[in-house]
Specification:
Chain A is of the alpha+beta class and 378 residues long. Chain A is built from 13 helices and 8 strands. Chain A has one domain: Cytochrome-c3 Hydrogenase, chain B (Orthogonal Bundle), CATH 1.10.645.10. In chain A, a hairpin with a 2-residue loop joins strand 6 and strand 7. Chain A is globular, with a radius of gyration of 21 Å. With 149 residues, chain B is an alpha/beta fold. In chain B, strand 3, helix 3 and strand 4 form a beta-alpha-beta unit. In chain B, helix 1 runs antiparallel to helix 5 and helix 2 packs across helix 5. The chains are: A alpha+beta (378), B alpha/beta (149).
Chain lengths: 378, 149
């Protein structure tokens, strides 16, 4: 029997359609359908200046909105061959880590809601609110911040605000372990999460899983290792686990929050004085840049003629993660409730996942082989 | 007598269905933030259930994409009377940054279904969303309930 879930469903917050092939209560296989929130951002961005494009890139995804602007800006900085001042790099890392913390909290809270553990769901949202306050203190807005520009960040952070953020993070660190322990050592939560939705390392490589989903399956891959600020300035390590089940993915996100807290403390303790923005003249050219979003690797490929964006392609992490979820995790799941929990554990973000199919002139589906070759029909 | 009783019950038990018609997710997570202990939506008798068949208030976010042109009307007709539609954020009002040449959005949402309240902002703060639901929800639902078809 085919059991359709969605697009509007009590278990889902975003419109997506899960088609579960079931045999009794058991789920044999699953198919995930998208297409409900496709807005055509890449197409709109074409022919605009970066000053307009950066606002569009921020609205690719509302949860990880910060990292999209950073990647967009760094792509254009790479075209110009310049780096932003060190203070701006520190501030960018600070906002990025704060954004990662709030995103991981909301991802884990969604998972706890899916396994019907309302208490931890509330605790996670309760821990998240001070982090949102910190983001607001620093950037002036809670979700779409408008904080990055090509060449730095829009405004400097005051000393007293940085001290307040340090205080918020210290308080978070003090009470955070208690809640992690509830999940880590709770026997019933463990029963509900361990060995459910398993994905092996081989499958993760085959399906190109990224972010905490790949790292939960033993893929030690974090793009922050290659990023110049993280590589040169901060002392941190990549979190990864071997189990590959719902428990591993959730614990991976919890451990990454601790790691982010460490990075934020280093940023605020060592932040250098100086400018936060410099003027960058952008020549014509092409560049690509990758960054670690809360959900994994986000890549921007952009081509400009010096003034207008001629071509842009955005690859977001959720497209691979939702794909491996449908292909490998939702095979032979014991119950439908476990299937929904597994889907929640990959932290799906549908808003940035929407894609179009590229057709040739005859209307046949073709492979996407490079950004430069795509021409839009007028 | 029965109407008066219905009014009281409707005012203190508002079921909400959240429909994302193609936005960036930002407004949706602000609605999720409303569930947190700081704002505590449920102390006002508001329950986010995401089921259109038992909803009193439909929260619309997003700028109406291709797939929603027909489906939005269908979901609206599935919600039982009396019902109230609250549009959250700039997207359902104007289409925000997406409403440009070449995009596939069909804002505003009021072209498709009647909208009772609008909250501008990108995204609006959680307290604003809560205030709007409380301002328009109970009274409008009670007033609509009294109108005989």
């Amino acid at each position: 029997m085919i059991l359709p879930i969605g697009p509007i469903h009590p278990g889902l917050k975003e419109p997506v359609r899960l088609k579960l092939k079931t045999q009794g209560e058991k789920v044999i296989s699953a198919e995930i359908d998208f297409g409900y929130v496709h807005r055509g951002i890449e197409r709109v961005m074409k022919g605009k200046t970066w000053q307009k494009g950066i606002f569009l890139s921020e609205r690719v995804c509302g949860i990880c909105s910060y990292i999209h602007t950073q990647t967009f800006a760094e792509t254009f900085e790479k075209i110009a061959g310049e780096r932003v001042p060190l203070r701006a790099q520190y501030l960018r890392s600070l906002t990025n880590e704060l954004d990662r913390i709030q995103s991981h909290f909301i991802a884990n809270s969604t998972y706890f809601k899916a396994i019907e553990h309302e208490t931890l769901f509330m605790y996670m949202l309760h821990l998240r609110e001070p982090v949102m306050d910190a983001i607001e203190l620093l950037t002036g807005n809670r979700v779409n911040m408008g904080w990055n520009v090509v060449g730095g960040v829009r405004m400097d952070a005051e000393e007293k605000h940085l001290n307040s953020i340090y205080q918020i993070i210290t308080n978070l660190e003090a009470e955070y372990d208690k809640y992690v322990e509830m999940f880590e050592e709770g026997p019933l939560l463990g029963l509900r999460s361990k060995d459910v939705g398993k994905m092996s390392k081989k499958d993760a490589i085959k399906g190109r899983a990224v972010g905490p989903i790949g790292r939960g399956s033993g893929l030690k891959h974090d793009v922050r290792e290659d990023h110049h600020t993280y590589k040169d300035e901060f002392d941190w390590k990549v979190i990864w686990r071997k189990e590959g089940d719902n428990y591993a993915r959730t614990m991976n996100r919890f451990d990454e929050i601790s790691e982010s807290i460490k990075i934020i403390k280093q940023v605020i303790e060592n932040i250098p004085p100086g400018d936060v923005r410099k003027k960058i003249k952008i020549p014509a050219g092409y560049a690509d840049w990758r960054n670690e979003a809360p959900r994994g690797e986000v890549a921007y490929m952009a081509e400009t003629n010096g003034n207008l964006i001629q071509n842009i392609s955005i690859r977001t992490p959720s497209i691979m993660n939702i794909d491996v979820c449908g292909k490998y995790m939702l095979q032979d799941v014991a119950t439908v409730a476990d299937a929904v929990a597994t889907y929640a554990s990959v932290d799906p973000c549908v808003a940035c996942t929407e894609r179009v199919i590229i057709l040739n002139e005859k209307g046949e589906k073709t492979e996407f082989d490079g950004l430069h070759k795509v021409k839009y029909l007028q | 007598m029965l109407d008066a009783l219905k009014d009281v019950v409707r005012k203190s038990s508002i079921h909400v269905c959240l429909i994302n018609t193609g936005g960036c997710n930002g407004c949706d997570i602000e609605v999720v933030a409303l569930l947190s202990p700081r704002y505590d939506l449920e102390q006002y008798g508001i329950y986010v259930h995401n089921n259109p068949r038992e909803a009193d208030v439909l929260l619309i976010t997003g700028a109406v994409c291709e797939q929603w042109k027909e489906n939005l009307q269908r979901i609206y007709s599935k919600a039982p009377e009396p019902k109230v539609v609250v549009a959250i954020g700039n997207c359902p009002l104007t289409g925000d940054v997406f409403n440009q040449e070449g995009s596939s959005v069909y804002a505003p949402v009021s072209d498709f279904i009647p909208v009772d309240a609008e909250i501008p902002g990108c995204p609006p703060r959680p307290a604003e969303i809560l205030a709007a639901i409380l301002a328009v929800g109970p009274d409008a639902i009670a007033a609509k309930g009294r109108q005989k078809p």
